[in-house]
Amino acid sequence: MSRTTFRxxxxxxxLALTAGLAACGSSSKxxxxxxxxxxxxxxxxxxxxxxTIGDNGxxxxxxxxxxxxxxxxxxxxxxxxxxTFGPPLVQAAASGDIDLGSVGDVPPITGAAKEFGxxxxxxxxxLTPTQxxxxxxxxxxxxxxxxxxxxxxxLAVPQGSSAHGLALNALKSVGLTTKDxxxxxxxxxxxATAFATGKVDAWAIWNPQSAIAVKQGAxxxxxxxxxxxxxxxxxxxxxxxxNDPARRAALTDLLKRLSGExxxxxxxxxxxxxxxxxxxxxxLADAKSILTTVETRVTPVEPADITAEQKLxxxxxxxxxxxxxxxxxxxxxxxxxxxxxxxxxG
Length: 346
What we know:
Layout: H1 3-8, E1 15-18, E2 50-55, H2 61-68, E3 77-82, H3 86-95, E4 100-103, H4 107-113, E5 118-126, E6 134-138, E7 154-157, H5 162-173, E8 182-185, H6 188-196, E9 202-206, H7 209-215, E10 219-223, E11 232-238, H8 239-243, H9 245-267, H10 269-280, H11 284-294, E12 296-299, H12 303-318
Parallel strand pairs: 2-3, 2-4, 7-8, 7-9
Antiparallel strand pairs: 1-3, 4-11, 5-11, 5-12, 6-9, 6-10
Helix pairs in contact: 2-9, 2-10, 3-4, 9-10, 10-11
Main location: periplasm
Keywords: Signal, Transport
Pfam families: NMT1
């Protein structure tokens, strides 16, 4: 596996990437959205805070923050921590090792089932909801043509991830269960190797990994779209930050600024692709080709989101993938004001 591919699939595990974000003086910088009280100057206590943002990769958030200067005048410091996928990120939020991070639809469920201390605070929605954020894919030349053909086959899945939920629901949609296939729980890096070397027959994985694999010849067996999958991700935050009024106000400001950098990126696709290329270590052409798969908007948590998460949680319990019923409403604490939509920023 090349160094580029190795890095793309997150084999480095958890890695602190940025100790702080310095202004770079670029004229192309976005104007950071105002905080809850309009200015960091209104909150001198923020100077004491350093917030860690958990990063799953694939959205260019760290490089976009540098490009846009989103946190230059925030009043608090920001650093990023890189994770291979969602479950360890949720655990880090629960332990207070990170303050905020974006994950798929399943990690909050599996984390809540283990009674981790975190809350769902916002939703990241695809700007192209008819385009899947993840897929079940098979290698070029595979004889597997339908989901039913997965019976008895090896399906690689990052355990406890959104792709785990896609696999579960996709199998159920054709009358199969987890007993009918050989679920092979592998993190994204190990899954990439197993898929490339033929050690598994299929792989449930998100973008950009899925999109790049398809570009290289893999075939989509099942798209991660309703009714078998959600197209949204969820921001989770540590209860430590949420329960302290001053830190909560700063965290709300942070989330708005983070939302603003993505809004800027959508309106500046060339710069966004360059940021994604640099952060993920992939060719610029690949970054441009998959850009629409990562373009999103951020909104508050809505009742429909809680309903969708509850349905998925109940499905996991029914399938024996978790052992404790989760009440999703009790692990939800929306940070953003009603009507907030990052696509309207800038």
